[in-house]
Amino acid sequence: MNTTTAPSTRTQVKRSANRGSHDPAVLHAIIDAAWVCHTAFTDEHGVHCIPMACWRLGDYLYIHGSNGSRMVRRLQEQDCCVTITHVDGLVLARSAFNHSMNYRSAVIYGRFETVDEAGKRPALEAFMEHLAPGRQGEVRPGNDKEYAATTVLRIALAEAACKTRSGPPEDDEEDLHLPAWAGVLPLREARGAPVADAGCGIAAPAYVQRWQD
What we know:
This is Pyridoxamine 5'-phosphate oxidase family protein. With 213 residues, this protein is an alpha+beta fold. The chain is built from 5 helices and 11 strands, in the order βαββββαβββααβββα.
């Protein structure tokens, strides 16, 4: 895959470096396919890694939370590490040692910054569109009280690294004769049929009807 120079020493991919990439297009695709990121930070109680809904606008990854959140406060005070992983398959080799996974992953370093009031509403509207394109125009928009209780944070994608694997197992030559099945067990995210709320009498809009497409 396309690889450019690592932006920092902590984004250098050393183990299986051939799987690494610093291509922004690869990074953007991994983020755009994600619903959740994991954000690691520290406080006086130790190290924490919290799953958070995420979305991307340009060269930033966004998250949001309550103003009183411990994590929201800490992320504005210190550097952190954000990770995203998609597992695409289990790779079964002829030897236990060479089993692997097909995956797409990204690691982002840096410090979150608070999105100002002028940018908060567009950012949250973009989040709604990330969840379901067309949804923002149908629901009640957030009111002043709701926006005032919410903090939106963003982290630049300038210091990041991606790592991916695809394809069949990589067996050692001396193991190719072994009578063990080898190959890939694919995994994918499946979209189920939409389930309307019991009290909803509204016909499903186009983006709901297309959910399984």
